[in-house]
Design a protein that fits this description.
The protein is mainly β and 354 residues long. It is built from no helices and 29 strands.
């Protein structure tokens, strides 16, 4: 409908977390009263597994998020009893009311981790959710494989295993490209070489291409970097960004869908990047310390036909973190948290000429 949608989580003094959504009909200048999708003590939302609200062509919304729930820690002998489920809620009345959370994964086993997920609306208007799941009977401290669930007529189907050996704690990224293909981008693990890999489905997740390394960084690390990829699409193709600690060129990469490297940001304070697709250009957002005081600000670069601008800064974004963006006409909306002295972050939306 052309509205701007903003979603976030907030926690009250009693520890109750609420997953909220609000809408703007004036391109982000003002927002409607927030609607609560779900409240509970186990809702998860972080850069490792961001809660998402998806807008379908049929007018409905689907919220996907991690929820620890009440699973008994004693049911798992691994990882200190950690557990996480992925659930979804549906709204068919413009986000006014939502269904109760239902599990994405129909496997009834509890006391295990399902997480580091992403979710997207496929070209057939069905939902795809990909995530990492604890490997059954593993003797390792952490071992997870890559799973995928898709909806059919709005109902989540049984999961598929799409890669049995991956990096165990790096978030997954999904995007649908200009040709309608579903792309899965994830950090692989080939004898501790942990570079980004990609698989593509041209039939709405029925089948996938063979996994291919997106760009041979050659980063060997005996552990999980806890860092995934982000992506954006526009009429000219897709862009992908990720971090690599390869000694030869450490930093945040920016590359095309085919793996052509466009940029490396090597400032050691640069982190938490996001990509925004627009009709004319794309934007890479990230947070970085601009001065010696150690305070972060939101930086950005514009990308047009593989040409990358110099670094610019979102005005008055001091102490900004976890930025995301949206191109609206000739403006870029940037939503981010602002770190406060009391430890309770606030939420801010800024506008940048695009």
């Amino acid at each position: 409908k052309g509205a701007v949608m903003l979603s976030w989580t907030e926690k009250d003094a009693q520890g109750m977390v609420s997953f909220c959504v609000a809408f703007s009909k004036d391109n982000g200048k003002t927002f409607s009263e927030k609607k609560t999708i779900y409240s509970g003590t186990g809702i998860g939302n972080s850069r490792m597994m961001r809660a998402k609200v998806l807008s379908k062509k049929d007018g409905s919304f689907v919220a996907v998020f991690a929820n620890r729930g009440e699973a008994a820690a004693a049911s798992s002998g691994r990882g200190g009893g950690r557990s996480s489920n992925l659930v979804y809620c549906v709204s068919k009345d413009g986000a006014a009311t939502w269904t109760a959370p239902q599990p994405v994964d129909s496997d009834p086993k509890q006391g295990i981790v399902r997480g580091f997920f992403d979710a997207v609306v496929m070209s057939n208007d069905e939902i795809a959710v990909t995530y990492l799941k604890d490997v059954a009977n593993s003797t390792k401290h952490e071992e997870r494989d890559l799973r995928l669930v898709v909806s059919k007529n709005g109902v989540m189907q049984p999961e598929k295993l799409i890669d049995p050996v991956v990096c165990d704690c790096c978030p997954i990224n999904l995007f649908v490209d200009a040709q309608g293909a579903l792309n899965v981008v994830y950090r692989d693990n080939n004898n501790d070489i942990r570079d980004m890999a990609k698989m593509v489905s041209t039939d709405n997740a029925e089948t996938f291409s063979k996994s291919q390394i997106l760009h041979n960084d050659g980063w060997k690390i005996m552990g999980c970097p806890h860092s995934g990829a982000v992506s954006s699409i526009n009429e000219k193709g897709a862009l992908i960004s990720w971090f690599s600690g390869a000694e030869s060129e450490k930093g945040i990469r920016l590359a095309t869908q085919d793996g052509k490297k466009l940029l490396v940001i090597n400032d050691p304070s640069a982190k938490n990047q996001a990509l925004v697709g627009g009709a004319q250009a794309s934007v890479l957002l990230w947070e970085q310390n601009k001065a010696e005081d150690g305070l972060s600000q939101i930086a950005f670069r514009k990308i047009n036909n593989d040409k990358v601008s110099e670094t610019a800064w979102v005005e008055e974004s001091l102490n900004g973190t976890n930025a995301v963006g949206l191109a609206v006409g000739n403006q870029l909306l940037v939503a981010y948290e602002v770190k406060q002295a009391n430890g309770k972050n606030s939420l801010k939306v800024s506008t940048v000429p695009f």
